[in-house]
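Pasting as-is:
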Amino acid sequence: MAVATIFCPRCDTLILEADRCPTCHWHRPVVTSEVGKPIWAVALEVKLPRQESHPLAVDGMVYAPTENSQLVALDALAAVAEDSIKWRHQFDQRYRCHTVTVWNEDVLVGLEYTGGFPAPPGELLFLSAENGDEVGRFPVDGASISVPVVRDNVAYFTVNTGWLYALDLATRQEVWRKKIEGTWSWAPAAPLLTPANLFILPSRSGQLAAFDPARGEIVWTFVADGWFPQTPVWLEEMVYARCWDRHLYALEAGIGQEIWRHRAPRDYSSDFWLDESYLYVGVKDYQAGAENGSRAYSLYLLDRHTGERVSRYEVQGHIFARPVAAEKAVFFTTDDRSREVNSQGTLYGLDLRHPQNPEPLWEPYIVEQRFQSDLLLVDDRLIAGTHQGAMYAFRWQAAQAITEAPAVYAQQGDWERAAIAYAQQGDYVQAAEIYAQQLNRPRRAGQLYLRAGEYDRVIELLGPSAVETERGLAIEAAQALAEPAARAKILRDLGDFLDAARAYKEAGDWVAAGECYQEAQEWEEARAAYAYARAWERWDKLTRDLELWQDLVARFLEAGEYAQAADVYANELGLFLEAATCYDKAGQPAKALAAYSQVAPERLTPEAQRRLAELAEQEGKLEVALEAYRAVDDRRKVAEMLEKSARHLEAADIFTQEGLWGRAAANLEQQVEREIERLGGVRYVRRNKQVEEWLQRAITLFEDEDEVAETEDDRNYFYRCIRRCRNKLAQLRREPLLKVDVQTDFLTLNQSSAVQCVVENIGWGTARDLTLTVGSSHLQHPVAPLELGDLRRNETATTAFTVVPNIAGAIMLQVNFQGQTKHGEVRTFPVEGGSNIILEARADLAPQPPSVPRDDLGRLWDESTPSDSSEDIDGAPVSQEELVRQRIESLRRQLAQHYRNLNKYEEQAAKWAGEAPVHLQNQIEDEQQAITDIEEQLGELEK
């Protein structure tokens, strides 16, 4: 088919055979053809696996592994479907075939063992390419064998036991085998053999390993976060590999250094295809424009050199099959199964003459099966397989139109048609020469040179031009230069500063990139480039020249460089509060404190004031911290600062007001110690009323704290504090300190009971003429004073007295000791632990024998004389009826108290609306039970 023109008649843009001009959208007349339509389709009657296995095309034959461990050979060039299937070979069901390798008349098959254990010995299989019959086996040390790769009649493959084999295919003899040591894990994909004789081994352990058989060792390893399912691809000293960690990697083949990586938004759905310029891969990207999950998949075109995405073409189904590309076109299929469609697949062909904006070559072709098997190009045919087991042969290009030879037109002097003819033949250079030299059309010549990849000629021809469109072509040619540094310089000379900056970044010259961004007045990009190059002087100068202080600070804050941000706040903006905050984050408390100190008091928020106090405390500036804590009215912290400043009396006053009696008492105790130290020791503090007052106050506070202590450990602690202070007070006064131990079997209501009392002097002086007095409102009669005589330090005196309780339950005795000091002063001596003693009395209604006093009150009673009635302390008889009456009155008083308690608890429970706490419910039940018990006792007594 003749083409009228290769340039758009409207805007003079090179379009070659394109139906539409990408610039002005001019359309050619539409011409129909058979391209994009199936030639034949055949059902294999067995499913084709998705991604796990790959068909192979060799010499017009297609070898397709299937899901049931079968290999099918088809003639891709057959005229009809009936002639397409040539043979089938069934493997053991315990093995899986991923793909095959063809050498001469043999098909080499490495199988992965998937059965149980123990695994049988593995063997590399040889099948006849003509009929599929087995023609030989080669045993290996292992159960699973990778797909072989062949070079110079030698097959190389790996085994799951870690061996790399070299097999002479002509003799089927082992050439060598090498053990692969290290963390590499076997994978069924074929190894990649580079021209430098390095084996790049994919693995299932998240790494690529480069093995040098000459040295017998792994020379480099590239580690990723997933499997490498596909054999890597080598091209121009670079290795390309897809990983299941959602990345495509490009590595320098010799050393394994990463050149670039590209991450899929969601994941890659297919293996990739690579040509001289681009990498093609199916992606699940769910980008903008996808509605309700539709059009969530795309074919990506990536720049092979940089990994940058050139374009994406959205489709509605998964791209499971690996795409293929040829002659400025790419072909791919989709699996369109969805909620609405159970089984459907689509074949696409895209025109890549303008890769940034690919256009359909034909109307997408839809079948009612799901395309999943890799695409294959065989002459003018495109072979595509479905998961259900159908194999299609499509026509992907039409027959070339027949035209006159370009030389004929040149001889006739028809230079325009000669140039078009050269262009139709793909000789764009000759066509460009005609337009440049014969037709004087530099723009058309430049477009053709550009198409031919003669970028230097485009730049030489059009670079100096003042015409914007021609200079644009020169810029486009410069953008296509492979060497980024040279590309950047030319673009900069042409005035394309933005693209020059990008090229400089690609070349790694971020400083030059920043300069170009500055020339383009892209200030943010310029600063980012300088920052990346760590050219902080340039970055700082540019930012300061722009007076973007807040941006300067924001940059430092984003980078976590809080000290630099603080310097800007303080020195450039005068914002000392913000500077203090940044110095604080930077771990420079001294500078933070200095900055806080320069902030006007009215600007200090309570939070800032508190932080100022904390920093001052941290830096030992106690007076500053004290004033700051006072400003936020934190009395406890004020007291703590006073405590740290050894101002214990002031601290004690505040702690007392705050109800922290233990802390207050501790400060008073410390004040006593400081005073003792100041005066030179205990001997110089004797009878110091001030010190004694502090100690007495400390004792009182410790006693108050002891009364509200909730745990036994706390009570023990405060008891020790009280005892320590009392001991200190007694030491200062040089006076006795008495310890009392009271022992009794039990006390009985209204009956005399003996109480034994042991008194020990644990103080410093002698208690002279010591007298014990016992008082209580719970006794029917007072206890007469008991004379104990003199009691020296660490001496013990034992005595006894008799009491008659007038209530049942707990009774309290007040024990006091009076005597003289060595100076003859009469005084009451302190008792360790306090002078109150709690005893338990019980009610016993059984008749008791009369008690006859041996001497007088306060001595032991002799209860050996029996009697029918009880006697009071004066010896007057008390009748049994009187005892019952007293008991009844006592029980009624107790009953009234329990009813009052019950009413109080029930009122509290009513506020909870039926959800009273468990402890309150327990208290109500205890009161109810006590009322029941007392009423039963009263019932018995009142009969």
